[in-house]
Amino acid sequence: MDLSIACALYFAARGRGTVQLGPSEDTVSYTTSARVLLSGLGADELFAGYTRHATAFSRRGFQGLSDELEVDYLRLGKRNLGRDDRVISHWGREVRYPYLDEDFLRWTLRLPLWEKCGFGQPSPPALVPAEETGDPSLEPSKRILRLLAWKLGMRSAATMKKRAIQFGARTAKMEAGKIKGTQILS
Known about the structure:
By secondary structure, the chain is mainly α.
């Protein structure tokens, strides 16, 4: 079990924390009444979202990328689903995985790799504003999802760098030898 991911999910599923409604606003305590949580699990494995996918493509092209994605996809159930379900259900909540929906999976697995990600594809020139080209210059990982977000007007989400949950939540620093006594986890 990847403890740093489990810890991040544990605290997120708890559904308690603080929220700041604006840049100059004070933080206020928040508790959710949601009983069902949505997980993005599967997006990286289906749309080449990990750094190792870029490495596989640069070393062995689309065949190498395809092989790496297959390994990731086939171990999702064994490696991730049980851990996530156990941690989230501790708080009496259920988790849903939209990217692992059977119909969505069937559709996604039929797509050619170059439609899912942008590896090996030229990006539009950075000097021309995306508003003029209609095609933003985006990271190649999960490009199809980034383009959808862009089209739906979620431009900041489309251009964000990938940040794994354990790094965004800072739980990766809890593992042996990396503990920082000044970091509060609540």
